[in-house]
Amino acid sequence: MKRISIRTTVCSLVCFLFLIHSTRVSAQGGRTQYPGFLTNHTYFEINVGYINYAFSNAHLTAGHSAGSVYVPHAAVRLVLYGYQFNKFLSAQISYMRPVLWIQYKNVDGDHDAHSVTMNITGVTLKSFLLNRKKLSLYIEAGGGHVTRTGFDINNSVVLKDLSYITFLGGAGLNYSLNDKWSLIGSTAWSPASSKQGQPATVFAAAGIRYNVHRLSAATVEENKNSPYFRFPNLLQVGYTSNVLGYGVNNVASNKVFPVFWGGDVQVGKGYSIYYQRNFFHGRKLFSIDLGASISYWKSNVQNTGFYTLSLFPVFRFSFLHLKTTDLYFNYSVAGPSYISKVKIDDTPTGKHFTFQDLMGIGIFTGKHRNLNAEIRIAHYSNGDLFPENNGVKVPLSLNVGYAF
Q1: 223: which DSSP letter?
Q2: Which helix (H) or strand (E) holds 375?
Q3: Among 96, 140, 219, 260, which one is least packed by beta carbons within 10 Å?
Q4: For the chain, what are the domain ranges?
Q5: Rounded Cα distance, 390 and 22, in Å
Q6: 3-state SS of the chain: helix, strand, coil percent to 5?
Q7: HSE-CB for 288 with a 13 A CA cutoff
Q8: 6-37+225-403 belongs to which CATH class?
Q9: C-beta neighbour count of 264 within 10 angstroms
Q10: pTM given for the model
């Protein structure tokens, strides 16, 4: 991947700041109507089901063999963004992966288990062949980006890493429960590649689809009169330290009930500047911000310095309103980012392109509720877009800010 210059990255960040500062969400209601990309034609899907690919010893490099190959079949496919052009055609971006990773066990008699991670990101079109009042049948076709992380033993590659573009297709049924919700039965298929050493992928699932509907004029007006979301801009400065350890990160990323991500690289300390622009708020509970950040970090083991530049969404839930203070929980996921080093503490983290994730709790307080304080944890990884994906774990950070 071509290295991105600092000048290009900073210019992009400045342009983004100007864009989010000057753009209006909607002519109807400003910040109290859904953002412009959430139209009446937008939809999202969650599909849970069965995945299969015939991994075997034949996919290992010559001279290696495993005692057994474990292929877990539970999998998910998310439609991250879908757009319905008309009743016959839609386009969507999807992400598909198993719940648990494939394992090659007892390779060359080592009595160990070696994980193989794999996912497919897709950009596809759906053509609806049958449209009844509630039931529709569709076929799907487009491109898929396959990412696979293999493994080596004693510096010898046993199963190679992969990253390539291929065909992704499928078919399914859509049953409308009402204007907003639909039940889905779906299949997806990606062909085998003898050149890449990758078996075919077959996926079958049941799921649910949510069709976005713009808010009514009455709801927009009610949101506009909210006493809780007054200021469109938030500027924060943050300090990060591992003085309290990584306990919060570890609890949030535990295997039993994970709600966040950990990482093989640990940040020791850091400094950050964040700017957020509010693009939508309801009357009392929910709001969406878009933000940009620049951070400088020092790693925990070798004290390696590196920086990140990020653009990110923020979903904020203001769960308690007191006389002069609002308490909130926020969550940010998949904020596209630039990371200046791709090997930290002798651990490869992938490419310079990565994603930023944030999770924290905070307050707005003061006479006008424009003083802000927040505690959060963070994470950087590329979401398995590239074979190397050892994440960066950022411990508790204290951020103070001013809303205006």
Answers
A1: H
A2: strand 371-381
A3: 219
A4: 6-37+225-403, 42-211
A5: 37
A6: 10, 60, 35
A7: 16
A8: mainly beta
A9: 15
A10: 0.80
